Write a sequence for this structure.
């Protein structure tokens, strides 16, 4: 059992888009060194929850707390500054830039002195640092100087996650990171998630691939129709019971279909 205090608390979060109740009174937490799976059918509210946690949307009511402190993110930049890194389905890597340039994308290091003032980048330093950052989480890339277009799909995704882990100070949110990857490449990504956990980050892992969720998570949160229906240790699920909870064939602890009556 993970006894660390919660890093991230989602506290009674409700979010509607006009008439659509995307999230209704959702509460759960993620501890340091814990991987929490977030699952649910299409439209269950997963992406909306990610957007609330990452500062894209403010909740209508409820709050997000980090290390016990209530946050009021007004933009993704606020969430990043507070220590939350989010990797969306589309990895956002620039294929023609080097791995180093990608890891430092948007946070480039300038050369010291006058050259830096003129906007010259410390490219070599970034390439070397990126290589070390990726190696630290178990990602072997040839050198930081190679361009992303030279990498396989699995390596690219590993670099995207490695970048997020390198910058995350508290929480990392991964939305479908193993989509479109072969079995071996997906396995590499799951390894990187374990590395993030052992560094003491809190990890939220969203996936439709239930075997991956069962393999890598410590706890699973199931959303259905915008409500949290189950939050339990992964050991309490198997593929069938997880699928049943997602689809509603198996009632969760808090079943929206029953509550509606
Ligand atoms: N920008 C939006 N405007 C209106 N409705 C939205 C918007 N984004 C999501 N929704 C609705 O909110 C609900 C939850 O969607 P979403 O969070 O994308 O679920 P998931 O990621 O689990 O598939 C769905 O009914 C969806 O149609
Ligand atoms: Mg989604």
């Amino acid at each position: 059992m993970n006894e660390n205090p919660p890093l991230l608390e989602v506290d009674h979060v409700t979010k509607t888009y006009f008439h659509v109740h995307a999230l209704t009174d959702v509460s759960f937490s993620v501890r340091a060194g814990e991987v929490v799976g977030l699952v649910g059918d299409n439209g269950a509210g997963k992406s909306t929850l990610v957007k609330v946690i990452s500062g894209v949307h403010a909740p209508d009511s409820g709050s997000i707390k980090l290390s016990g402190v209530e946050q009021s993110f007004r933009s993704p930049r606020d969430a990043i500054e507070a220590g939350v890194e989010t990797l969306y389905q589309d990895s956002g890597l620039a294929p023609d830039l080097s791995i180093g340039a990608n890891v430092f994308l948007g946070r480039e290091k300038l050369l010291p002195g006058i050259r830096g003032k003129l906007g010259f980048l410390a490219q070599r330093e970034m390439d070397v640092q990126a290589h070390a950052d990726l190696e630290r989480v178990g990602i072997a890339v040839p050198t930081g100087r190679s361009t992303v277009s030279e990498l396989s799909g699995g390596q690219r995704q590993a670099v995207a996650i490695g970048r997020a882990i390198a910058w995350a100070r508290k929480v990392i949110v991964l939305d479908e990171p193993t989509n479109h990857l072969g079995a071996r490449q997906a396995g590499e990504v799951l390894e990187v998630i374990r590395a993030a956990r052992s560094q003491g980050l809190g990890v939220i892992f969203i996936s439709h691939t239930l075997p991956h969720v069962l393999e890598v998570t410590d706890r699973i949160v199931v959303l259905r129709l915008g409500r949290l229906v189950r939050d339990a240790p992964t050991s309490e699920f198997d593929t069938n019971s997880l699928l049943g909870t997602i689809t509603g064939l198996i009632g969760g602890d808090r079943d929206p279909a029953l509550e509606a009556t």
